[in-house]
Design goal:
The chain is of the alpha/beta class and about 425 residues long. The chain has three domains: about 190 residues, 3-Layer(aba) Sandwich (Rossmann fold); about 80 residues, N-(1-d-carboxylethyl)-l-norvaline Dehydrogenase, domain 2 (Orthogonal Bundle); about 130 residues, Rossmann fold (3-Layer(aba) Sandwich), CATH 3.40.50. The protein contains 15 helices and 15 strands. The strands form four sheets. Strands 12-11-10-13-14-15 form a six-stranded parallel sheet, with helices on one face. Helix 5 runs parallel beside helix 6 and helix 9 packs across helix 13. The termini are far apart.
């Protein structure tokens, strides 16, 4: 198993539980040392810590930084490392290509390579399979390659891997598809969906992310119309979704994480076909942090307070509630915009430990929010810890922007803007 991050470690642990002989590979020696000690470095993942401890103690799971040595001993090679985009939003395959080279150096005839990392369609066919053949000296028929995408969410990884959804498998040939189907039929209780090939399987994974990005962009555009419509757009969406063919998402302060903001570029910048809808969706969703900030500034202006003289508390920095991940988190541009406009910015996040991305802002704890006497508060991430904040102790001039419809503000006399609701509703 190559990659022992927040998706890779749960997969390795479940593989170990089912198959019984798994070596996990990671470039971070601290991660390897932690796992070898029977401990779990991934936080807030129910059941994972106990499963890792059990598998390591039983000798079913170990970890190493020696990828070539692990590859030499393995018959099945599972790749689950990140695929991001570079500064031009072009897919960056450098990490997965490095892993593939390590596998190619030690692969044996009859071995199977399974790719769970999300990649641009045709990567298995055009990159991974020919790279292994060229660097190993084997014929393409001597080994198998299949794409079997992870369909896993943080906070429920074990449940998802074991079968919350069927597993999709597609090989570069029919034999590889059959082998992948046999492997995952043992792991996934909801069954396996074999598709016509690796490129189809790769497309399934990317399409899932693109659908969500486009749907969220639509919801965000509708949410921005709330004031002009004079309605609670969230109520309208909820009722519209009672129609079976309607499944509108919910507007929010921005789209973050290691998936949705990146996957559209796997199509936009990898193929020549026109993709105006996907490009527009990215622009809309990337505009939401600025929109959220503009509503906060609007509220302060109504209270006669320039943003340059304001004290602002940002609630929630990770991209999703309860998840320790800030990649592409909307909190980053929101804090940057506030700091650039000379606001005094304090940040609060009950799950995050590393605040180094938030230059110019001061970290405070939950109990210190009222003490800094803020002029404005903006909720960016809906951590459950924020639900119990007692707003009665804050000055009535306080401006509150709720970017996730998550705060209990009933009866509050403050200036309140909830994204998706007309002012005053």
């Amino acid at each position: 198993m190559y990659g022992l991050g927040k998706m890779g470690l749960p997969l390795a642990a479940v593989y170990a539980d089912v198959i019984g002989n798994v070596t996990g590979v990671d470039v971070d020696p601290n991660v390897v040392e932690t796992i070898q000690a029977g401990q779990c470095h991934v936080d807030r993942e129910p059941g994972l810590s106990d499963l890792v401890t059990q598998m390591v103690s039983m000798g079913r799971l170990d970890a190493t930084t020696d990828s070539e040595g692990a590859a030499n001993a393995a018959d099945i090679h599972v790749i689950i490392v990140p695929t991001l985009v570079d500064e031009t939003n072009t897919p960056d395959l450098s990490v997965i290509e490095s892993v593939v080279s390590d596998i190619a150096a030690s692969i044996d005839p009859g071995d199977m390579v399974i790719v769970e990392s999300t990649v641009p369609p045709r990567t298995c066919r055009d990159v991974i399979e020919p790279t292994i053949a060229e660097q190993s000296g084997l014929n393409r028929s001597d080994f198998g390659v299949a794409f079997c995408p992870e369909r896993t969410s943080s906070g429920r990884a074990i449940q998802d891997i074991r079968g919350a959804y069927p597993k999709v498998v597609g090989g570069t040939d029919s034999e590889a598809t059959q082998i992948a189907e046999l492997v995952y039929d043992q792991i996934n209780q909801s069954g396996v969906i074999p598709v016509s090939g690796a490129t189809t399987a790769e497309s399934v994974k990317v399409f899932e992310g693109v659908y969500r990005d486009v749907n969220i962009a639509l919801a965000n555009e509708l949410g921005k119309l709330a004031d002009e419509l004079g309605i609670d757009v969230l109520e309208a969406i909820e009722v519209a979704n009672t129609l079976p063919m309607c499944d509108l998402h919910i507007p929010g302060a921005g789209v973050g994480g290691h998936c949705i903001p990146y996957y559209p570029y796997f199509l936009i910048n990898s193929f020549e076909g026109p993709t105006p809808l996907m490009q527009t969706a990215r622009e809309v969703n990337d505009s939401m942090p600025a929109f959220t900030t503009s509503k906060l500034i609007e509220g302060l202006s109504e209270k006669g307070k320039p943003i340059s003289e304001a004290t602002v508390v940002v609630l929630g920095l990770t991209y999703r509630g309860g998840v320790v991940e800030i990649r592409h988190a909307p909190s980053i541009p929101i804090v940057e915009q506030l700091v650039t406009q000379d606001a005094e910015v304090f940040v609060v996040d009950p799950v995050l430990e590393d605040f180094s991305e938030f230059n110019g802002a001061t970290r405070i704890e939950m109990g210190e929010i009222e003490e800094v006497n803020p002029d404005a508060v903006v909720l960016v991430t809906a951590h459950e810890e924020f639900e119990g904040i007692d707003w009665s102790g804050f000055d009535t001039s306080l401006v509150i922007v709720d970017g996730r419809q998550a705060l209990d503000l009933d009866g509050s006399n403050h200036w309140i803007y909830t994204l998706g609701k007309a002012q005053g509703r």
